[in-house]
């Protein structure tokens, strides 16, 4: 498909999510925190919705938090089933060790702090690490809800406070802003595919190695 077609599809999806309001934030949160990371998309949509309906800013902060927690829990659950070995296959050994080290040191705040920080700080490795290390479900949800809750409360509050200026800015620079989001989504998608194929190849190699060992044993 051409760039124009990609743009039209992305614009249609974006408009659809915007018109869904709070439900759109939940759907976007599920994708952003589990399937394909979309850096900055949750913040932008939360700000836009809070700017257009500033009396409901607290509602959009809540719905964005719910979407982010649900998406994060999906990632956590998949990593919990796979364990440390699957996590180490997904990332490089050195990077996995660094994430594990930080998680063992900070525990609760190893999830809460990345959830609070804005993009491009990555949160997915810490979600995966929490699951791989069999971290408590209750503590994980509490940490993720705390970090995302504080973040989206601030974001939605700013959207409500500076609503007119924000809406005017996006009305004027709608296409460049959307192109930027599409570009970030494409990059995130490519990186996710690369990681998936690396994980698949490593899994295939591990199975082949175990088969050879069984035959030679």
Walk me through the structure.
The protein is mainly α. It has one domain (3-203). 87% of the residues lie in helices and 0% in strands. It contains 10 helices and no strands.
Q: What share of the residues does DSSP label as strand, in percent?
A: under 5%
Q: What is the terminal separation in angstroms?
A: 52 Å
> Which runs of at least 5 residues are low in confidence (pLDDT < 50)?
none
Number of domains: 1
How many beta-strand runs? 0
What is the H-and-E element order? HHHHHHHHHH
How would you describe the shape?
A: elongated
Look at the helices and sheets and give the structural class. Answer: mainly alpha
Q: What is the makeup of the main sheet? A: none
* Radius of gyration from the alpha-carbon trace, in angstroms: 19 Å
Helix content: over 70%
Assembly state of the chains shown = single chain
Brief rundown of the structure:
The protein has one domain (3-203). Helices cover 87% and strands 0% of the residues.
Outline the secondary-structure elements.
Layout lengths: L2 H18 L1 H14 L5 H12 L4 H34 L2 H14 L1 H9 L7 H9 L4 H25 L1 H10 L1 H43 L1
Helix pairs in contact: 1-2, 2-3, 2-4, 3-4, 3-8, 3-9, 4-7, 4-8, 5-6, 5-7, 6-8
Properties at a glance:
217 residues, mainly alpha, 10 helices, 0% strand
